[in-house]
Amino acid sequence: RKVLPIDKLFRHTGQDRDGTHRQRHHQRPHSVPEQGVAQQRHPHNHSSKSETRLRVSTAFRALLQGIVGNDTKPMEGGIKAFTAYFQTVNMKRILFILLLFCPLCCIAQDKVTTDNSMIVRISEIEVYPQYLQEYLEFAHNVGATSVREEPGVICIYPMQQLRDSCQIRILEIYASQEAYQHHIKTQHFLTYKQGTLHMVKSLDLVDMRQMAPECLPLIFNKANVNDINIMEVEQQLNTSWPKGNPNDAYAQYFTGQSYLAPIQPKNLSEGEKTVQSYANVTFEPGCRNNWHIHHGAHQILICVSGVGIYQEWGKPAILLHAGDIIDIPEGVKHWHGATKNSWFQHLASHVHVADPESNEWLEPVSDEQYIKANM
Asked: Which DSSP string do the residues of 326-370 spell out, in sequence order?
């Protein structure tokens, strides 16, 4: 520790030997500044410190409000407040504020990049009359292809105003920000974008907030019961495997419609037992069974047609195509079914490993779990 002589100690503290304050050495001799000026310049003025604390705390509150509420306006206000504050403080304080500010920026960035909420948007488009028919064809193709081929695209639904045919509205629903980012990089979207640039007079993307999100699955379920739509999808199945009859005996353990067709080896007579039985299960688009567990047996799935999903509890979903085989261990919680845009068929067989052998049916796969598995 540095020991100061008594005279230097009093000079350092700004006091005389008798303990009374004296004027600092940097002030002009024989001049007493006005009270208001002295308070304004004094580095330890109490009101100045309170005002600084208020400005900094207000800026922090604005930033936190923007981060928690995912709202850019409070965040912009907080940044402006910090900018104004930086102009009035020294470098040490700037570094201190930055040390506090950087974690907030990381939190905000993490919130933006991990935001997995559904995107609902209406594209308001005006098309030049001379390109109208050509644009409508582009819009129809990109909508149909996106919904059919991209699991994360829930809806791209172009519409045309009756009173002004050049006014186009497109309802867009994406399962997540990740699904949207994937969509805008697909070849069919890039073809649409580049092919229609000269056709569009104006474009406004209007982000929407859902007011009744619980109704969304009901809306699409009602649309899917349209017989014509189901027949069109069925024609795309192109399978030589039997579809079978509605799987009514197990309907309570399925979301959507499934069908069951037992498979009998051709070399065996009717009623003759086989050492390894098989059944062909067919899932309509969007159909899946509940979470369940096989006790005392492995289940083998041999995928024969369409596109399906298999998922074990706590693990990522696996996309299935014709020719894929799944070996489900005994005692593992899992589910399987079709993607939302495709029929799916698989052969199912059980390999006995222990007694007793049984199936334990559990809760249905939630819409949130199913949508995530389709991505």
From this structure: EEE-TT--EEEEE-TTS-EEEEEEEEE-SSS-EEEE-PPPPHHHH
